[in-house]
């Protein structure tokens, strides 16, 4: 009798877990009946674009990140406003590129299954396919999001390259992401470029006394000072020098050597959990990172989603 009661309790617990997992309405294959070609259509657009401009991979990944961290993954970063007061006009979003790929993917979908696939789901699929096009990780993308109607420049408060570890952990937790997710998703800095203004303070006046950040390797700091003069506002720098076009674990090797480009990279060594993950990944080959990156991207993709009757399905993502 006691055993059967325990079995019933266990079953109820599993049912509850399943209900929590599916209550938000996201699932792999959401469009399997209404638009079964969706993934193939988006993949073709992304791969064709990335053949011509492979450097779009990092901005497309950041676009999904920037969308999910403001109002949740609702496609609000894609919206235009005539008064330039939309999210995309905020300073952290001015460096985003690749909006045309979202537009082209959506236009191709509208020809085949009009009014079915949300722009927020298109963005989630594009972010994954851009990584695959770079021979990076792949993962099964949960779909079923609907699009938000609000995009406000004043709501853009993203994790910053200047953040310390406490702020980073707090920001990520607010989106349902833990310390491991923070480290894994920071690994997106294995591709793409940063710019000198994000480093000037770190190199020339870290504490207001004309000094550099002591957490930055001194030889690397000297190398960066040659590339970035105090008034330089334009020079681009590889976030993962020598490997910035390749999705790999070399980012973690650099961070472990105190050669992370941004303060937020260096900050990963300032907490025992995040430091442990960095050092572990620095010692591994890419397979573990690839797997974990997909897991964390799926988790991030659940943040603040609109499903069911909430939001809308936009015909044009802008």
From TrEMBL:
UniProt: Ca(2+) 1 binding residues: 67, 70, 72, 74, 76, 87
Binding positions for heme b per the UniProt entry: 189
GO molecular function terms listed in the Swiss-Prot or TrEMBL record: heme binding; lactoperoxidase activity; metal ion binding
Source organism: Capsella rubella
Signal peptide residue numbers: 1-23
CDD domains referenced in this protein's UniProt entry, alphabetically: secretory_peroxidase
Subcellular location: Secreted; Vacuole
One Gene Ontology biological process: hydrogen peroxide catabolic process
Cofactor(s) needed by this chain: heme b; Ca(2+)
Single GO cellular component term: vacuole
Residues the record lists as binding Ca(2+) 2: 190, 240, 248
EC number(s) per entry: 1.11.1.7
Similarity field: Belongs to the peroxidase family. Classical plant (class III) peroxidase subfamily. Belongs to the peroxidase family. Ascorbate peroxidase subfamily.
Enzyme class: oxidoreductase
Cofactor binding, per record: Binds 1 heme b (iron(II)-protoporphyrin IX) group per subunit. Binds 2 calcium ions per subunit.
Protein name: Peroxidase
Alphabetized Pfam families for the sequence: peroxidase (PF00141)
Keywords, alphabetical: Calcium, Disulfide bond, Glycoprotein, Heme, Hydrogen peroxide, Iron, Metal-binding, Oxidoreductase, Peroxidase, Secreted, Signal
Primary residence: secreted
Cysteine disulfide links: 35-113, 68-73, 119-317, 196-228
Catalytic residues as annotated in Swiss-Prot or TrEMBL: 66 (proton acceptor)
Domain Plant heme peroxidase family profile per the UniProt entry, residue ranges: 25-318
């Amino acid at each position: 009798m006691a055993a059967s009661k325990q079995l019933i309790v266990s079953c109820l617990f599993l049912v509850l877990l399943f209900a929590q997992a599916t209550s938000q309405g996201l699932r792999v294959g959401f469009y399997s009946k209404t638009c079964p070609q969706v993934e193939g259509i988006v993949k073709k657009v992304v791969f064709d674009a990335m053949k011509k401009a492979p450097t779009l991979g990092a901005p497309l990944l950041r676009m999904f990140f920037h969308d999910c961290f403001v109002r949740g993954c609702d496609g609000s970063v894609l919206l235009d406003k005539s008064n330039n007061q939309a999210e995309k006009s905020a300073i952290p979003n001015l460096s985003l590129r690749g909006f045309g790929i979202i537009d082209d993917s959506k236009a191709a979908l509208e020809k085949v299954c009009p009014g079915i696939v949300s722009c927020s789901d298109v963005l989630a699929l594009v972010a994954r396919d851009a990584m695959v096009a770079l021979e990076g990780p792949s993962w099964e993308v949960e779909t079923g999001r609907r699009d938000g109607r609000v995009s406000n420049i004043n709501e853009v408060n993203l994790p910053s390259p200047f953040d310390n570890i406490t702020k980073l952990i707090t920001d990520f937790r607010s989106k349902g992401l833990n310390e491991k997710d923070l480290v894994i998703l920071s690994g997106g800095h294995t591709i793409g470029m940063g710019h000198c203004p994000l480093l000037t303070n770190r190199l020339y006046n870290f504490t207001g006394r004309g000094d550099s950040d002591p957490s930055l390797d001194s030889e690397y700091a000297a190398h960066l000072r040659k590339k970035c003069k105090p008034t330089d506002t334009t020079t681009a720098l590889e976030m993962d020098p020598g490997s910035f076009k390749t999705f790999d674990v070399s980012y973690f090797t650099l961070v472990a050597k105190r050669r992370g480009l941004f303060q937020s990279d260096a900050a990963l060594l300032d907490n025992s959990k995040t430091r442990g993950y960095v050092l572990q990944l620095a010692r591994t080959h890419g397979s573990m990172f690839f797997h974990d990156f997909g897991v964390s991207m799926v988790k991030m993709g659940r943040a603040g989603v609109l499903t069911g009757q909430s939001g809308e399905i936009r015909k044009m993502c802008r």
